[in-house]
Design goal:
- By secondary structure, this protein is mostly helical.
- The protein has one domain.
- It has five helices and no strands.
- Helix 2 packs antiparallel against helix 3 and helix 2 packs parallel to helix 5.
- The model has no long low-confidence stretch (mean pLDDT 87).
Length: 90
């Protein structure tokens, strides 16, 4: 995703993406278990994951001067990929 959307900032995007995934790891595990157990729906899962967008910081991309709209598009792409991946596991 970083190479196609932010190819001029690949190192920063990759580092920020990894930090994002690490920060969401515990929540993703909990929500995935709840999805598998039927405690939440796929719609609930998507809402929970997408709600994390505002908490996410992309410091490397900001410091590199990437426009906020590009950063938001990158965050959305990562979160949607997480949702699709988790939905595919159930």
């Amino acid at each position: 995703m970083a190479s196609s959307n932010l190819k001029d900032y690949l190192n920063e995007a990759t580092a920020d993406g990894k930090k994002l995934l690490e920060s969401l790891k515990a929540d993703i595990q909990i929500w995935n278990n709840e999805l598998v157990e039927g405690k939440i729906s796929a719609t609930d899962l998507e809402f929970l994951i997408m709600a994390k967008k505002e908490e996410m910081e992309m410091e490397g991309l900001k410091q590199a001067g990437v426009a906020e709209i590009k950063i938001d598009q990158f965050k959305n792409g990562i979160l949607k990929l997480i949702v699709k991946t988790l939905e595919g596991l159930t």
